[in-house]
Structure formats: C-alpha cells, structure tokens
Amino acid sequence: MRHFRSLLINRTGIRMPGLHILDFAVHRHLREHASIEPHSHRWCQIIVYLSGQGRQTFSGGDVRVGPGTLVVMPPGVSHAFERATDRTPLCLMIDFRLESARQCPAVVCSMNRSETTQVRQHLAHLIRLQAGSSGVLRWESAAVILQLLITLLRAANWLERVPPPPGREGGSVMRRLLSSVDPATPLRHIVQRSGYQRDHLNRLVKKETGLTLGQFRAQRRLAKAKDLLAQGVQVAGVAEAVGLLDQSYFARWFRRQTGQAPSRWGRRPLG
C-alpha cells in the first residue's frame, strides 16, 4: 500500500447510537522502540499495517503481519507487537467504543484487493480534506472516517457484509458503463462519470474485458472508424466522430492499427 504522510486526530468527537470514535491516526509506529510489551485497552482498537513487517502477539499465540494486514481487537484483549526489520511500520490506528464489542473476537486477517483499494481511497481523500486543519476534525472528514471504519469492520466480519441490490452486481454495472463508452469521449470524462479513481477503474475494466480503459476505448474507436469509413464517410468526418480532431494524426493512428490508410479502407466493398 502507498506511503501516506502522518495524520493524527485526537478526540474526534464522532458519536452516534452504539458507536463512539475516539482517536484516529496514520503514522509510523514504534519509532523509538523495536517492540511493544503486552497491554490492553478499555476500548476497541483497529490497526492496519500499511508498510513494515512484524509479529502481533495475543494471549492465544502470535501471527505475522505485513502490508494489508488488518487487526481488530475488542476491549480487554492483551496484545503486543515486535517488528521484524529495521524499517518502522506505517500504521492506521482507530480507537473506538462499540456496543456488544466484548462479544466479538479479536481478528487478524489480510484484506482482499477490493478492501485494500477502498482503504487506500478513503485515506487519500481524508488526508486531502485534513490538509492545513492542524488536527481539528472537519465535518466532511467525519463521514470519511465513519465509512473507513465500516469497511474495516466488515472486512473483519464484525459487521455483516451487505450484498449489492438486485441488478446492481459489479459485473453488470461495469458492463453498462462499458457499453455506454463513446470513442470520442476523453478518458478523464469516462473516469469522472464512473465515480472510481482511474487506477481502480482500470482494474475493473481489465477484469471484465482483459483490456485497460484506454485499450478498450481504442478498440471501440477503431471499430467505429472502420464502420463509418465503410459507409463512405469522409476521413475528416470520421476523425472528428471518433475524437481525433487532427486528420493527419488520425490517418497515422488508423494505419498503425490496420496497416492501411483510412482512404483505402473507405473504398473496400461492403461484406
């Protein structure tokens, strides 16, 4: 996971029925110490290892942790940590109180790709929101912290995973998005319309089609250009229709894709 700069919000003041988020921090843990002795808290604690490696110890044993490891502990659970290298771990930590948390087990798990992406996106957004705030929580940031906490509690199975509503599965949503891609539309506009960050959207498109977003649009662009040329549309009109306004550039691009000039393709007989 990417290396985020430090962020500390003490006494967040985020309260709602059954939940109180106490402190939120992203920083390098154990900067002066190679280990933390066994201890416990009167509150719940989440630790997400963003970088670095070590061993997280509980009363029942110890587990190896590294980037992408999620640790969720209810109140009263004794735990300790020992780092495995000279590199100080970078961690996200959230202290919170949650009703019925004492009935939940301590959890150490590796987040999947989707969960890791969501955490990365929430943290990047939060750090942008908090820039220049001197540790004072902004109200927009409170919503991001809450969504981040929900994501992590679901990853640990402390909260039930909510399935997508009928007809809105990720695959069908992506297919609808891809079917609406106009070859003349700039990639940044497609990304904005999707609601995803570009890297994440590329991964979703590649999972669905085997192509990146740019490659998929290029495929659609070429198919449309061939079709219009076969209908007898002038090269300049085809270039504009597929979003390549420079006719000379379009001609070079088309030749690279097909081995033929667009003017020759236009004279091909139909069928």
Descriptive keywords:
Jelly Rolls; elongated; Arc Repressor Mutant, subunit A; 3 domains; 4-stranded antiparallel β-sheet; 7-stranded antiparallel β-sheet; 9 helices; 271 residues
Shape: elongated
- How many separate structural domains? 3
Mean pLDDT: 82
Count of strand segments: 11
- The proportion of strand residues reads 15-25%
Task: Present the secondary structure layout.
Elements lengths: L6 E3 L4 E3 L2 E10 L6 E5 L4 E8 L2 E5 L2 E5 L3 E5 L5 E5 L6 E9 L8 E4 L2 H18 L8 H17 L14 H10 L7 H8 L3 H12 L3 H18 L4 H7 L5 H12 L3 H4 L6
Antiparallel strand pairs: 1-3, 2-3, 3-10, 4-9, 5-8, 5-10, 6-7, 6-9, 8-11
Helix pairs in contact: 1-2, 6-7
Short characterization:
The strands form 2 sheets. Strands 1, 2, 3, 5, 8, 10 and 11 form a 7-stranded antiparallel β-sheet that branches. This protein is 39% helix and 23% strand.
Description:
This protein is an alpha+beta fold. The protein folds into 3 domains: 7-155, Jelly Rolls (Sandwich); 170-213, no CATH class; 223-265, Arc Repressor Mutant, subunit A. Strands 1, 2, 3, 5, 8, 10 and 11 form a 7-stranded antiparallel beta sheet that branches. The protein has helices at 113-130, 139-155, 170-179, 187-194, 198-209, 213-230, 235-241, 247-258, 262-265; strands at residues 7-9, 14-16, 19-28, 35-39, 44-51, 54-58, 61-65, 69-73, 79-83, 90-98, 107-110. The termini are far apart.
